[in-house]
Amino acid sequence: MAFYDKLFSALGLSEWCGTSDDKAPLSLADLAAQAGGEEASGPLMPIPSFDNLHESCNRIWQSRDVTNGIEEGFLAAKPVLKTVLDPITQPLSWMLDGALWLFEAMPWFIMVPLLVAISWYASRSRPVTIFVAVSIMLLAVVDHYDVAMQTLSIIFVCTTISVLFGVPIGIAMSKSDRLQKSVVPLLDLLQTLPTFVYLIPLIFLFSVTESKLYGIAIILYAIVPVIRLTDLGIRLVDQDVIEAANAFGMNDRQKLMRVQLPLALPNIMAGINQTIMMSLAMVVIASLVSAPGLGVNVLRGIRNLELGVGIVAGIGIVLLAVILDRVSKAALTRVDKTQVKH
Amino acid sequence: MTQPMVRLSGLYKIFGARDKDVLQHVKGGMGKEELLAQHGHVLGLNNINVDMQAGEITVVMGLSGSGKSTLIRHLNRLIEPTAGEIIVQGEDVMQLSEDGLRHARQEKMSMVFQKFALLPHKTVLKNAGMPLSVRGEDEATCDREAAKWLDRVGLSGFENHYPAQLSGGMQQRVGIARALSANTPIMLMDEAFSALDPLIRTDMQDLLLELQKELHKTIIFITHDLDEALKLADHLVILKDGFVVQQGEPQHILLNPNDPYIEDFVSDINRARVLRVRSVMTPLGDDKVPADAHGEVDVNDTLESMIARSGGDTSHAYVVKDGEQTVGTLDMTELVRALVPRVASEAGARQS
Ligand SMILES: Nc1ncnc2c1ncn2[C@@H]1O[C@H](COP(=O)(O)OP(=O)(O)OP(=O)(O)O)[C@@H](O)[C@H]1O
Ligand SMILES: [Mg+2]
């Protein structure tokens, strides 16, 4: 005798519910209840969940039917999704694999000076450049050079793609209030979903051995700030300057290239900086789905309780994060400086 | 009379979603406050009819919110009118296609802004050459023209500075150089000197007059300052709540204000410094030049200089010359009378 029996008979639904023949497989709770005695000594009034209602009425679903339903729905949609998404995302796999190969194949005595030179070119700051050189050497000394380069190559590809897509999306959003209104909730969603949740549907769609799996997860997570800040940056451009651009007869393209983008650049750069940091955060988590790099060592540290391995890899990630942050921030300040307003 | 450079006729602007619908109320005589209270629309311009002659400085003056910026932005259609005609060099601006409008903005009208509106990430040279590069001129031409005009406004040597490194007065010189390098017949100046301190401002006014003597542009100049208006204007248009209260020759308006609003405006002015001999002299008619004339004066002398010259003696009289030609006589008694605002108008101003 379950709690909600009376409710269903009062509603005159006993017929419709049918007898509780309990052919359906029992839930663990049912088993426990049966073992403990004939009547479940549960709470006074159980919460009206699917499972609890099902006890009184067979026609009501059980909660596992819901999860099963979702899974089946997803599996049914999978072939269609896959035929569409697979070819579109295939280049991502190639790019990730290509970049991995390139970063690994490049001899260290070329790669390290190259990275230092890039840091100098971007930041024009001596302390930052020296810090980059020392950090890379530190990583190399403890034999983490290779994994660090793997991580770096993934970040490189994912940030580039995020910028290539994010900036135009941001521009489009700044031009159309309607588009902005519809995209912002999506961005909110991408940013608030716990990172692991992304991985679940992606694992179903693509095989774990494909690099685009983690590539997509990283990009979805990291593209948000660059979109947001491009949109914001363009909307914040001084209206007086826009008016001047109009008054001198600039067309939309000239306005965008000569006024809006340059004046929004500090904001866009801030967005790119955040995008880089977020891809680094995600690339560590993505090691769960076979992304190579420092994250793998962290994972090993957790799985095998190899404390030292995990901590060294963790410090490596911190170093990498500080390098990327300092270099991109220094580049940002440099851009900002030409636009100081007194 | 030749056709005006710019003609605004029957121009209305109402801010709001249903501007075309409420236009009839405005045409029926509804004022700015009523319109806002009853229909929630802001009356920007109300039946503006102004001709702006080629080679003249037309000054539009009015208090804050009277619609000056709205008016000037109609000439290059930065604001779309609710109704009315805008004719520039005989061409209806309202009929222009998008391309045609852009072309007109590039080739016919350049603009100087109150807040300068320079590109902060470009050097002074590139800022000044911007109108040319927008038209697609090659870089060398842009730089050459820009340097020429920067030199003309007294900024040579600052070509490679950024706007933020310059003072307000210098930034506005860049703004003027930018407008001049566009080489357009019409220049629109919206409170171009209002953000500058008084001394710099006088400098800039002198610079503008000096340039104008050479270039003979058609300048539409917005200001809320009567001294500035009187100094610059060939034709003065006075706006109030979106309509034209009075327009005409500035000296004439000063001596014959037709509205308490304008009397209020002109009552604080130093008339002796602003009024010129030509406005108060008696034109040469049948009567002969007085024999007891104390000397000859120029038509464009200010009354202040006349008072100084006569030593304050009101019994003096002078012969007025325009170049070689004798054009009238000046009686110091007349002159002193003109210095006092009309008594009747004084009373009218108090009432309002
Ligand atoms: N986009 C707009 N929407 C609604 N009302 C507007 C808009 N632009 C201007 N107005 C209104 O039109 C009127 C005239 O404004 P305008 O800016 O032309 O005044 P102004 O004479 O230039 O004043 P100021 O000296 O302060 O610059 C004001 O009442 C203003 O509130
Ligand atoms: Mg204004």
Automatic annotation (TrEMBL), chain A:
List the keywords (alphabetical).
Cell membrane, Membrane, Transmembrane, Transmembrane helix, Transport
Q: Which GO terms describe its cellular component?
A: ATP-binding cassette (ABC) transporter complex
Q: Per its UniProt entry, which superkingdom is the organism in?
A: Bacteria
List, alphabetically, the InterPro entries matched: MetI-like, MetI-like_sf
The subcellular localization recorded is:
Cell membrane
Query: What is the protein's major site of localization?
Result: membrane
Q: Where are its TM segments located?
A: 99-121, 128-145, 151-174, 186-207, 213-230, 263-287, 307-324
Entry keyword Transport: yes
Q: How does it sit in the membrane?
A: Multi-pass membrane protein
Which Gene Ontology terms cover its molecular function? amine transmembrane transporter activity; carnitine transmembrane transporter activity
A GO BP entry is: glycine betaine transport
Family of this protein: Belongs to the binding-protein-dependent transport system permease family.
- Name this polypeptide is given: Glycine betaine/proline transport system permease protein
| Taxonomic source organism | Shimia gijangensis
UniProtKB/TrEMBL annotation, chain B:
**Alphabetical list of InterPro entries matching this protein:** AAA+_ATPase (IPR003593), ABC_osmolyte_uptake_ATP-bind (IPR051921), ABC_transporter-like_ATP-bd (IPR003439), ABC_transporter-like_CS (IPR017871), Gly-betaine_transp_ATP-bd (IPR005892), P-loop_NTPase (IPR027417)
Q: What Enzyme Commission number(s) appear in the record?
A: 7.6.2.9
Listed under GO cellular component are: plasma membrane
Query: What keywords are assigned to this protein?
Result: ATP-binding, Cell inner membrane, Cell membrane, Hydrolase, Membrane, Nucleotide-binding, Transport
Q: Which reaction does this enzyme catalyse, per its entry? A: a quaternary ammonium(out) + ATP + H2O = a quaternary ammonium(in) + ADP + phosphate + H(+)
Q: Where in the cell is it found?
A: Cell inner membrane
Q: Name one GO molecular function term.
A: ATP hydrolysis activity
Q: How does it sit in the membrane?
A: Peripheral membrane protein
Describe the location of the ABC transporter domain by residue ranges. Answer: 17-266
One Gene Ontology biological process: response to osmotic stress
User: Can you state the subunit structure given in the record?
Assistant: The complex is probably composed of two ATP-binding proteins, two transmembrane proteins and a solute-binding protein. The complex is probably composed of two ATP-binding proteins (TmoW), two transmembrane proteins (TmoV) and a solute-binding protein (TmoX).
Task: Give the protein family.
Answer: Belongs to the ABC transporter superfamily.
NCBIfam families xref list: proV
- This protein's name: Quaternary amine transport ATP-binding protein
Source lineage: Bacteria, Pseudomonadati, Pseudomonadota, Alphaproteobacteria, Rhodobacterales
Q: Which gene encodes it?
A: opuAA
